[in-house]
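Exam prep: given the inputs below (a chain plus zinc ion), describe the expected output before reading on.
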Amino acid sequence: MEDIEKFINGFSRFQQQYFQDSQALFDSLREGQRPSTLLIGCCDSRVDPMLLTGSDPGDLFVVRNIANLVPACTPTASAGVSSAIEFAVCELEVERIIILGHARCGGIRAVMSPRKVERETDFVNQWMRVAEPVAERVRRDLAHRSSAEQHHACELASILLSLDNLMTYPWLKRRVEQGLLKLHGWYFDLEKGALMAYSARQHAFLPLVGSLPERQDAAA
Ligand SMILES: [Zn+2]
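Solution:
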């Protein structure tokens, strides 16, 4: 019950903020949406795209799935994800796509350390097959490293896989080549509270917003 009350009170605050205090914004949104950005993030409750980016309604077109994956463009690709990408790119003509990965991703843990499930379905492992090529490579190349290091490497590598897979959609590739669409790979390090971005030039994830200085111990 407590959570439900929190959500209802939250809606009241949202109503106040946007329907009363920002009437102009919602008046324009009633006419339609024109988001500049498609963000593909994880379902993880700790990684909320709007909260993390300080976005307002209408700013982000969001697709969330386990481990923020983009399947390659094939006839058998998950239409749930592909249709959202198609709509954002072809109809809304977004200017950028951000793949937002994160630390401690349960989906990545599932593909790196698969467990047999004792229930009627296994949709998680079925979906995570999209990331299997990078998981295999990480397991092979970093076999001597700890599982935490392997998971971290797979979290980053899966963002790059999704960026590569985006380019298999022909209409998306055309817009990138025409300079109309930019692709970004971001990583939220929720352990350190930092945001990293992939630099193609440096082949590395570099800090976009670094972590805060060490918190002072109030008792000290
Ligand atoms: Zn995740």
